[in-house]
Amino acid sequence: MDYQKLIEAHRNKKADVTCAVLASMRNRDSEFGIFKVDSDNKVTEFREKLGEKPVKCISVENSGKSNDSVHNNFLGMGIYVINRDVMKKLLREYFPRANDLRSEVIPGAISLGMKVHAYCFDGYWEDMRSIKAFYQANMESTKKTNIGYNFYDKDSPLYTLPRHLPPSLITDAVITDSVIGDGCILNTRVGDGAIIEDSILMGSDAYQMQDVQANGIQGKDMDILIGIGEGSHVRKAIVDKNARIGKNVMIINKDNVQEANMEAYGYTIKAGIVVILRGAVIPNGSIL
User: Fold this and answer.
1) Where in this chain does the record put each Nucleotidyl transferase domain (predicted)?
2) Are residues 149 and 12 part of one domain?
3) Which of 75, 87, 121, 287 has the smallest CB count inside 10 Å?
4) 276, 265 contact by CB (below 8 A)
5) Contact assessment for residue 45 and residue 104, using Cβ atoms and an 8 Å cutoff
């Protein structure tokens, strides 16, 4: 999102509060609520979920009812622009006991008849509130067509803090439809014959060399190096940092389990996605 456009819309409307909303209702399960908006983009109601009653603040009557008969529902994004003086009044005078901006302060501003407007955003946005949402967003970034977000769009550059890692080293591998981060070594860290499909690998904080035992460094599970062992198959999974996956391991959710808490064994399953926990050790030959 270009926040400059959001602020410009807020100023042009001379709004007290502007709420960013999604142009599409494709995901109806937003934790940021549903905003009812009239033809002038003024917010007239707020609901926690579609179909529920509007949220109103106790002891405050709605003095800003709209006569506009045309209304549309939009998903909230949890992004707001609020004038400083308006925020002070809302928190100090009207709702000093409020604990939540979304469910108390914003509906309160609507009830008071303040100028609460919506800014309709039609670009890419994902609510990373769950394992499933995180997984889907990552998978969409690897698509050749209908890509969710284009990291290489020159008109919308993505600024981030570089980690100053060396270039990735890839030898003897066949890789398609993937995004490879800096500092990866894809030969010893991902063993010969290993297959990884539709998965997210978070990498590791340190690398282990194959001759780690030969140098006299020993300990529990040191025979399984950080990374994915030879002949293993990983499909529809998220592998967290510093995980050790042994040889000939099958992480494929063979029973199509949707939810499971197996933290004692180093993994969980959320929405059918196998999550290998940080620092987990999956023994040779395991089938998950």
Assistant:
1) 1-143
2) no
3) 287
4) no
5) no
Span of 12-16, 21-25, 239-243, 279-283 with lowest mean pLDDT: 21-25
Burial of 250 (0-12, 13-18, 19+ CB in 10 A): middle
Measured CA to CA, the distance from residue 255 to residue 79 in angstroms comes to 40
- The residue among 95, 121, 147 that closes a domain is 121
**HSE toward the beta carbon, residue 3, CA cutoff 13 A:** 3
Same domain, 82 and 30: yes
CATH number at residue 249: 2.160.10.10
Q: Which of 89, 121, 153 is the last residue of a domain?
A: 121
Closest CA to 225 of 212, 241, 214: 212
Cβ neighbours around 199 below 10 Å, total = 21
Give the residue numbers spanning the domain of 72.
3-121
What pLDDT is attached to residue 122? 86
Residue among 26, 31, 14 nearest 102 (CA): 31
Please name every residue paired with 42 in a beta bridge, in sequence order, or none if there are none.
117
How would you classify the pairing of strands 227-228 and 244-245? parallel
User: And the tokens for 100?
Assistant: 């939540």
Of the candidates 203, 263, 268, 191, the one whose C-alpha atom is nearest the C-alpha of residue 232 is 191
Split into its structural domains, the chain has a count of: 2
Residue 145 amino acid letter = T
Residue 271 has pLDDT above 60, yes or no: yes
C-alpha angle 138-139-142 in degrees, rounded to nearest 5: 95
Q: Are residues 114 and 133 in the same domain?
A: no
Do 167 and 77 share a structural domain? no
Largest CA distance in the chain: 80
Report the predicted TM-score, pTM, of the whole model to 2 decimal places: 0.68
> For 46-69, how does the pLDDT look when each residue is reduced to its tens digit (9 = 90+)?
887 765 555 554 333 344 454 555
Indicate whether 172 and 147 sit together in one domain.
Answer: yes
